[in-house]
């Protein structure tokens, strides 16, 4: 997929350049709104400085910002062994140079995303809801999809674009407020007043359209990348039904996602906004279309098989780059993993949720006391007393402050 990697790099440059232009234009209009015509240059300079700072932040810690904004918590293998095992399998299958860090998002809605600067410094984040709903094959399909984003160098694009989009939305909001303030300024002549009124109308339209234009470009590029990541996932797992079934469960969930927003939405494997229909502002192609393409793969799991299925389902030209289609290697599909067969997992999943909840509390400074009667006391930090009574056996315990 070297051609796709090259295209991703080119598109990233185009997107960032376009967003930089929007930022500079908004900066100039913001300067006019606050100061007048003489403030246009100052506004552009300030916007240029903001663009430079945000780009540096995106490169240095953009992934951590996005993970933090999603409430993701880095976990150890003990918290969810199967998840770590699957991530390691896909890391080996994709020949990544380093094991991605693993995060869990405490959100009941099933979803996942990947982020990072490059394949050597990447992270995969999944929600609690995803772990509760999917079997092993389905979870493997989701992880393979996210690892494909890492292989295709999508993660830096999404990280940079997400931070820049958030900046444009913020500046547009500031600008709209600035035009209201600027509209109260008085000029000495009627001509100046007329010119000011015209410029304010133009500025308001620009401030409204700028973030919309940035979102359309961002979302359009993200939609295509989802199809490519689906193709890469199938090639890694050799089991199209795993990802198809996972997408069916994720898109069919009625639980709204509390930790997603318009900036982070394109990062997820499926739109976190429940009930939204596919349109120009959709962050993802329709889940139904993606599922139909995956289930139309009858003869194999390589890029040619996916491209043929895509053409037959959508009636459009293929989505896979020409260089990948030239590969002659056959990738046969496999049978379902026996470890993914239906099994009584309710108790095991409940224990996983308990372990993850305890892990989060440990990160928050909670103290844990195992009472001889079997009760596990979970005590928040900064208790007003160091004596706690067990609610079952009434034993008084002394809390040791760490």
What does this structure look like?
The strands form 3 sheets. The protein has a 4-stranded mixed sheet with strand order 1-2-4-3, sandwiched between helices. It has helices at residues 2-34, 40-69, 81-93, 128-133, 136-151, 154-182, 190-237, 240-252, 287-295, 303-314, 322-325, 346-363, and strands at residues 73-74, 101-105, 112-118, 121-127, 367-370, 376-379, 387-389, 396-398. The N and C termini lie far apart (51 Å). The longest helix is centred in the middle third of the chain and has 48 residues, at 190-237. With 402 residues, it is of the alpha+beta class. It folds into 2 domains: 1-332, no CATH class; 346-398, no CATH class.
SSE blueprint and pairings:
Layout lengths: L1 H33 L5 H30 L3 E2 L6 H13 L7 E5 L6 E7 L2 E7 H6 L2 H16 L2 H29 L7 H48 L2 H13 L34 H9 L7 H12 L7 H4 L20 H18 L3 E4 L5 E4 L7 E3 L6 E3 L4
Parallel strand pairs: 2-4
Antiparallel strand pairs: 1-2, 3-4, 5-6, 7-8
Instruction: Characterize the overall form.
Output: flat
The order of strands across the largest sheet is: 1-2-4-3
What is the first-to-last residue Cα distance?
A: 51 Å
Number of strands: 8
Low-confidence stretches: 184-191
Overall structural class, as computed from helix and strand content, comes to alpha+beta
Oligomer class: single chain
Number of domains: 2
> What do the pLDDT scores average to?
81
Percent of residues in helices comes to 55-70%
Percent of sequence in beta strands: 5-15%
